[in-house]
């Protein structure tokens, strides 16, 4: 067998890298441009005072995060991978921190304004960012030894309760993280407002999301996972949101700022990834259902039609040698068996099977059936879609059948190769050969016409080279 070339694989890897890096680069570019305008364009006002808009964004963000967390929970139950679990837990923590927790603490009077109502959501968001970064670093191949549904929600609730208890125990000594009345009185250009620990916490969260963005993008280039592909740009926007919260802490005020836009962009990218994941899941489910139905039909054909045709062929042996219909019945039975078995193989095998593997399997079957020596030389880098693979197999079967039945060939060679973008299938035999012009002209048989039509539909061409006594060569190029 000819060793497969590595060029197509390299091209495929480059394509996956470009597809994975494109959205992430766009997310980083948007974050850099937006943050740059905030810092270097003091004449442009980015702030918008709207408590209701803040509430709407918080609600939308929480709903999207819960949807994606639920999706990740389903992935974790199916695959039992640490990455899905940690991602789901991180999103649940971000939901807990973002559904009005600060306003709830402030309204309940559990501490002075600007203390517990700021430190508690900050701590939970920092834990959520750390879990997202941990999910990226763990990778998609580490399996968890458990798959309980309680881990997705239970761990975030325990962490939230423990964080609240720890901060509640030291509530009297908590510093004022942010002077809310003072922040509200300032213009939207306020920079570096808040306690140093508040700014440091947002900076650490930004670093976690930056790391997650780069790692998720690298992983998306290696794995065909739509959700991974969109986690890279999502985490980039989440990181720049935290950078903007360092510059202006609008998260704890009634002002809408660039950070709030980036934060919502993070959840919108997650929503896009979730939509792609759901679509792929249902597509895979429908394909599995179709494949199962095809296999059922293959079993019915094998246990019904194939067995009956085999019985007819076996019974035809009981006819006398001089019977005029004996050979015709046996030949018709052989053709029917060939067609039925081809249908069984087409229905019973996955459409994603590689062309090289399919040709190897078909060659073994044909060699065993016709009792001929069949040499196979296949370049495994040659690919084809489902329709092309079906046409190539039918052409191969017809060429081998003609060579054995009409040309009385004892040895055949099947070769599949490529030359740049051109792919070529060659079937050569040592049979009796025939007059090509006479056989392919107006009175051409249906088998040759069918082979030519199938080759044109690839799209491609069919060439037949033969002469009496010199064997024949069938070449398909597409």
TrEMBL record:
CDD domains referenced in this protein's UniProt entry, alphabetically: HATPase_UhpB-NarQ-NarX-like (cd16917)
Pfam annotation, one family: HisKA_3
InterPro entries assigned to the protein according to its UniProt record, in alphabetical order: HATPase_C_sf, HATPase_dom, His_kinase_dom, Sensor_HK_TwoCompSys, Sig_transdc_His_kin_sub3_dim/P
Histidine kinase domain segment(s): 300-478
Tagged with keyword Transmembrane helix: yes
Transport in keyword set: no
Membrane-spanning intervals of the chain: 20-40, 52-73, 85-106, 118-138, 150-170, 197-218, 230-249, 255-274
Superkingdom in the source lineage: Bacteria
Gene3D superfamilies for the chain: Histidine kinase-like ATPase, C-terminal domain
GO cellular component: membrane
GO molecular function terms attached to this record: phosphorelay sensor kinase activity; protein dimerization activity
Keywords from the named record: Kinase, Membrane, Transferase, Transmembrane, Transmembrane helix, Two-component regulatory system
The protein's name: Histidine kinase domain-containing protein
Organism of provenance: Kocuria turfanensis
Organism phylogeny: Bacteria, Bacillati, Actinomycetota, Actinomycetes, Micrococcales
